[in-house]
Each structure stands twice: as structure tokens, then as C-alpha cells.
Request: fold
Amino acid sequence: MDIAGFMIDASAVLCVSFGLYILTRDYRNSLYRLFMLLCIIISAMALITGRIFTVKSRVDLFFWDRVYALFAFIYWAVNLHFYLLLTGKKIREQLQVLLYLPAVILIFLEFTSFPLVTDFDRQGNRWKYIYSGTYYVYMVYSISYALADMVLLYRWSRKGYYKKHRLQGRAILSATIILWAACITTDYILSHFAFYAFPPTGAIGRMIYAFIIWYSFVKYRFLDSSISSRMDEIVRNYVDSVALLNPDLTIRKYSRKLNSLLKTVDKQITGRSILEFSSDNEELKDKLDQVKTGKAEHADVRLNFKTAQGRITADCQIYGIPDKFGDVEIILMKLNENRNVENFSDVFNLSERQMEIITLALRGLTNTEISQKLNISKKTTEVHFFNIYNKLGINSKIELYNMGIEYNLLLKNPVPVEAE
Reply:
């Protein structure tokens, strides 16, 4: 095996390893699976190119050239599909069919009566290809798909939501333009001249292209998650009501106190959108977007939240935690429950009469005095207290007094409460 053949074979194995590395990050990710497929196709095309360059028989050359054409047809469709997913485009099933339809038609033509190459002519140590009309159809197909790739990358590099994505788009676009220019120059222009004796560089060029995509993922997507991991641990053991949100506003981690505040369990919070718990979604979403996009370093807002026990009001502080590219990687949200008379009655579903009795009790009035004040019997007052205690989950006026402190229900100079 010559040096060129060895380099092609070694590069093909390395190219597949790029795909496997990306795939192992998240095998369920459609984008990563498509990159793995792209690496396999590029490696196969490289290996076949090495065989084509060394064959001596016209029969063998026809065989390997057709196998190469099969992968080449599929390559352009998979490549464009990859860029559509990379740039965040939504692909419907009908569009996927149209995306791969030209490749299917060309494969059908290649293996029936209209192959790309009709014959080969041996000239010195190389084969000269004699193309059919189908070859020019393939050229239109490949060039149009390549231009579509460039347009997608160009737009993404300028209008991508995250800075790291824009940088990734620029890196891939710049390298792709240089590589494609070099490959076209060597394989389609210089190859027509007798003095040019180097093997086709398209195979090596495509593998360098796969490496650039792999490197762009490693540099701009697979960031060091140590900061996120440390934040997860801090929040989990934080004494206040705190939540970490992903950029899509789903809850990533939260403190025990937040779980107690929302009165739910782990599986009902993790992975759910914070908007599901808020009664003021538009205002919350607006504040989160300001922080997420970098328009504001932090935001303060008072919001109502839905819990299993009713509605609560909380003063929220929202902070964006950026990565090394300046994009907000996670959002820190701290909730301080705003406890007052209105919230107290709403949360515990207390009637106006029950709130009157609670207010008088916190002023230090006895049951008899409350009865006289409200012109009701002492027995009726005791029934009211029984219902109030059930709603609050308490058993005495001492506990009622403590709740009054929590919800700021007491006067500046309250009369001490006596247990009855």
C-alpha cells in the first residue's frame, strides 16, 4: 500500500471515530445521529476513492465507480439535512421526502441504463472518465445542495440566537469554502491537465471537513459543565426557595424549600416549564427573555404561583449565568414568598368572617370578647375557630399567633395572646 492509500484508510477510521465521539454524547439526538451517518458516508467514499485510484481493470473500475456514485448521491442529501437540523430548521416529513428524492432518482438512473460514466480511457497511469448526460444532472444537484448549505450556514452565522452558534457557523462556513475551492481546483480543473499526477484530494478534503465539524461541536457546544454541576449542588442544598432553569425555561434543579413552597414532589417539578407554575406567564416570560438574551443582567418581579394548596405571591429575583462565550447557560431564580393579609386569606381559603375573627384574636381578644364584638354567640365563635384551625392545620391560638407573625398580620403593638 502506498502512502496516499495508507493516509486515506487511516483518515477513514479517524473520521468514523469523530462520529462516534459525537454520538456518545447523546445517541437520542437526531443531529448527532445524522453527523454519525455523515462520517460513515465520508469514510466509505474515501476508502472507495483509494480503490478506484489503484485498480487496473476496467470491470473493477466500473464496479467501484458505481458504488462511489451511490454514496455520493446520498452524501449531498444527508449533508443538507444535517445543516437544516444544525441551524434549527423544522423539517416536515414532506420536506424530507423532497430532500432525498433527487438522490433516489439518480441512484435509479445509475443502476439502470443511465450511469454517470459511460466508459473509461486509460491514459498513462490514470483513467480518464467519459461522462454521460446524467453526470451534468448530478453536477446541478450537488452544486445546488452545496449552495443551500452555504446559505444556511451564512444566515445562521449572522442571525443565530446564541453567540457560540454564530461562531460555530462562521468556523464551518469559512473552512468549507476553502476546502471546496481546493477540492474543485484539484479534482475538476487540474485533473484535466497532463502534468497533474496527484490523486483526487476530494476524499481527504471531505474528511478534513468532518474534522472541522467535529471540532466546532467540541469547542462551541460541548462546554465544560463543571460550573453547571457546582451550581446544581449549591441549589440542591440552598436554604431559600431557588430554582435553576435551562435556556428553554424548564426546571433543572431546585432547593428543598422551593419544593415545600410549591407543595409538590420531585417528579412533578424537574423537567417542567416554570411557566406551568406561574399565573402571570406573560410577565414572567418577558422578564426571563430579558435575562436570557442579555438585555438585562437581572430582573425583579412580583408573581403569583399556583400550588396544590392554592395561590401564593412571591417576589422573584432572576439572574442569568453566562458561559465562556457570553451566552446565558442557566438561569437562577430566587423566590421570596410575599405574605400578607390578602395572600393569607387566598392561600387558606378563609371567609371574611373568619378573617375578622382571626384579626380580633391576634389583637388579644378572648372568645367572649370576640362574640360580643361581632354580636354572635360564644358557641358560634368556637365553631368558627374550629373551622379556622382545620384550614390552617393548627390547634391553638399560640400557633395562630405564630402564623400571624409569618404573614405580617399583627399590629405594631399587639396584645399578648392567651391560649384558651
In short: The radius of gyration is 35 Å. The chain has a mean pLDDT of 81. The beta strands are 117-123, 126-131, 241-245, 251-254, 298-307, 310-322, 328-337. The CA atoms of residues 76 and 167 lie 24 Å apart.
